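Hi support team,

I submitted a single chain yesterday and got back a structure, but I'm not sure I'm reading the token output correctly. Could someone confirm the output below corresponds to the sequence I sent? I've pasted both exactly as they appear in my results page.

Thanks,
R.
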Amino acid sequence: RLPAVDIGPGQTLAVYTGAGTDDSGSVHLGRKAMVWNDAGDTAMLVDDQGAVVHSYSYVGAVVTTTGTSS
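Hi R., thanks for writing in. Yes, this is the structure output for that exact sequence:
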């Protein structure tokens, strides 16, 4: 689970599996093993009310996304 992060319109956030230093544009999970390696692994971006705004799923060698970008 990621820490709560505010991402404003037009901003991006990079999520890294490994260790590193978090800043306003990136967060690091600090894991030593791969995370995005099983079909169905999904990250979801939710708003303040918990509604899914965007999702990113690993499905074998194919990545699928849903949602809108602005």
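A quick pointer for reading it: Residues 57 and 63 are 6 Å apart (CA to CA). Let us know if anything else looks off.

Best,
Support desk
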